[in-house]
Fold these 2 entries.
Entry 1:
Amino acid sequence: MMKIKGLSGLLIFGILFLGCNKDDDGGGEPLRDYGEVALENDAEIVEFLETHFYYIGEGEEKEILIDTIAGENADKTPLIEQMTVKTIKYNDVDHKLYYLQVRPGAGDKPSSSADAFVRYKGLNLQNERFDVNTTGVTFPLLGGVVRGMREFAIELNASTGFTINPDKTINWNDDYGRGIVVMPSGLAYFNETRGGGQYQSLIFTMDMLTFEETDSDILITSSGNFADPDGILSKDEDVDGDGYPENDDTDEDNIPNYLDIDDDGDGVLTKYEYDKNDDGIADDTDGDGIPDYLDKDN
């Protein structure tokens, strides 16, 4: 895995795609039922996938393109026959996410809490583009993208590396993961109007160029919040092992462990309890199977 920070000022940092799912759209309309919208969106998505195919453009960027199965393209394979379906429970509703690994990639996969550096394109079901980045942009998968993008990103492997040209441009090894994801509005912007309107199902193509795993703990003070890493990667603060560190809060102080500088709330900072002898193994002083940094009584 190539470290993002190793690219220095060549990278752009942006928080993209983040959907707020506000209570209303500012015009007084009540928020629609998530379950009802999920069913409607899924029917629309299936119809789209049954009638469209993908192909690779002839340009230098080898863009992933989508077109209708008709006329000279009548013999093309419909997307519905190539997609993997992933069911995501979000806002207490099961949503179906459809994705295709056009190329899995040869590098490592990011965790759900990594910062990913990607190229992407956003389309609606009318196959109209509403967003694009062709050079690459960094965004945090945890807290910086809509749920559908996060769930797709972790299915792609990154590139094995890159070369820097004399003009400081980058050539990525042609082995990065790339693919297509189609998501219902409940995993996207829901009642916001990005993408062409409220409650819109959306399509994204993505190239997973590289990523960096993060250590996101913060010191919360009256004058502001400051980065204070505890030496444990956010992906390793997923105590229950469900792949999502944001729902693990050992001391139940409403600060998830991946942000909490004192995970067990015993008054001793995690970074001073985790591995005092620097052997790479979390310390367990009382031998009860619970590491000291998660054990208030150690």
Entry 2:
Amino acid sequence: MRILFILGIFAILLISGCNTNKNKENLKSENSIIVTDGFKHIVPLENVINVLPRDAIPSIDKPKFVSVQEAEKFLDDNEVVFGVEFNKDARAYPQQILNWHEIVNDKIGNVPVAVTFCPLCGSGIVFKRVVNGQETTFGVSGKLYNSDLVMYDRLTNTLWSQLDGTAIIGELAEQKLEILPLTITSWQDWKKSFPNSKVLSRDTGFVRDYDTYPYGTYESSAEILFPISTRDSTYHPKTRIYGIEVNNKFKAYLKGDIAREKIINDNFNGKNLLIVYDESIDDARIFYRDDKEFILKNGKLVSGDIEYDLNDNSSNNKLQELQVVKAFWFAWYAFHSDTEIYKT
């Protein structure tokens, strides 16, 4: 199966070896739905490419979970996991499994979620899997847009861009999915913070070599395998960023910059923002901060004489968290070429 998958990738590479700067577009610049041969769409149909048959990469729709102790048998400390916690229900989804499935349809703390990962864009995003007010599940369409996973919902068969959760082709074109908080961290850090976490089991119902990364040296190389609408060489294409949208404007923060500064009081498009790095999980969160200025004092987040616990949802001092896209730089820029970039 792995050989067939890799052959499929290289077949597309041979077909797609063209100038990827043409047909430059920005998804957000589309102001109206286009109808072509009865298909509603907001991006040029020719820019959505077919790579594999629908569900050739199978989503996990009935996930099984094991304890942290059981997961130790197949997870090394430095392996990446995607962590989600709602209503005291903490779950970890190993990247080694998501590399082969890309979508896990689950329910966490009674919240219906789709935990998604596009290996090509490095984009891990959790969506509330509700469309038109109805709960649904998502699958892998086998198509790519700007080298990014295109999902489909099983309620309307609408095609959705994973990187920003926008419906690009189909009945629900232009609608957006709700993005939910996600932690991307190492297994070592996650299990320390959430020792009672559930962990996605390798018993997925599919035969895959989860010990093998199917994309070779892709994560560290400058290579981009599939066409994208526009490129930028300011940073290495696989530089990891945190992308946000505030009032239809976009901004990217390099993960390395956040990790060095630990805390950033920023202002973007008329909104005061707080970016906080959590060393214990090697990840960051972004909040609205009103007019407050924050500092780190003895490891505590402080504004004036008030301490803030960002993990205490019952606190009167709770801050509003932004939806954040965590992805490779090239992918964020391909979707949002007008993005601002935080400079240290």
